[in-house]
Design brief:
By secondary structure, this protein is of the alpha+beta class. It has 2 helices and 4 strands; from the N terminus they run αββββα. Strand 3 (62-64) and strand 4 (67-69) form a beta hairpin.
């Protein structure tokens, strides 16, 4: 819900795709007949399984020393943010790109 209007404001065409109860976003820009760029990221998490098997509660961030424990603490959130900004920069680049985007 957050990414679609943002990417569309940068000229991307967005399509929501649902598979097996999981909703995905496909965003594209440019002409499909030219070379293209694919960036892939995720912000989902798998089910936690048996909660008794966790050393620390999975849904409660727990700081132990200088380490943070919890679901998603070291997941794809930072790289996904970098991909979003890279998409913006690819679109707004003043340099000739082989993707037919600029």
């Amino acid at each position: 819900q957050f990414l679609t209007p943002l990417l569309e404001s940068w000229g991307f065409r967005c399509t929501r795709i649902e598979r097996g109860g999981v909703e995905n976003l496909w965003a594209e820009i440019g002409d499909a007949n030219k070379p293209f760029l694919v960036m892939n990221g995720h912000c989902d998490v798998v089910p936690p399984g048996d909660l008794s098997q966790w050393t620390y509660p999975p849904f409660e961030p727990t700081l132990v020393g200088d380490k943070l424990y919890g679901r998603g603490a070291a997941d794809m959130k930072g790289p996904l943010a970098a991909l979003i900004l890279a998409a913006r920069d690819v679109k707004s680049s003043e340099h000739a790109l082989p993707f037919g985007l600029a």
